[in-house]
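Standup notes
- DV: blocked on the single-chain target, sequence here:
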Amino acid sequence: MNNDIYTIRDWLEQSLINSDTNWYFSTFKVIGTYRDALGTRRQIFNDLSEPKILRALDWTITNNRRTYKYQFRFVPFSGGSKELGINKHIHAFIEIPSNCDDDSFTKVLKKTWSSYLNKSLKCWCHSDVWLEKYDRIKGNPVRYCSRQEDVSFFRELQGDNKVLVGTSSFLL
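- DV (later): unblocked, structure below
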C-alpha cells in the first residue's frame, strides 16, 4: 500500500505534464484605488472586497463553462501581500476546452471577467487577465503560484493553503 501524501500541487504538476489539452497559467487582476470614509486611499482588491471579487471569478468561469459546454478544470490561487506591498491578485491554471480556439477563449474570458467584476463590486473598475500558455520547458509555474509571499513567519499562505478550494469554480 502506498502511503504517500498527494497534494493539490502534486496533482496539478502531474496533470499539466500528462495532459493532452492546452493549459494556461493566468493572473486575474483588479487595478485601482478608492478613498474610504476617512479619505485614505485603499486598493480596490482588499479584505472587504475579496468575497465579491471571488464571486465575480466564479461567475466568470461558470459563464465560460456554459458558453463552451465543457467542464474545464480550473485551479485558482490567492496572491499578494499587504506587508510587502504586493497588490492582491488571483493566479489560476485553466484547461482550455478542446472545442474552441485559444484566442476566442481568451477574449471571452477577459470580457466576462471585467463585466462580472463591475457587476459584483457595483462600481466600474479596471481589470485585466494575463494568460500564458503552459510550456513544460519554461519552468514550473505551479511552484511560483504556491510560494510564500508574506514576510510573517507564522503566515501559512503557501503551498496548498493558497489554493482557493472554497470557490465554486474550483475544479480539479
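- Follow-up: The radius of gyration is 17 Å.
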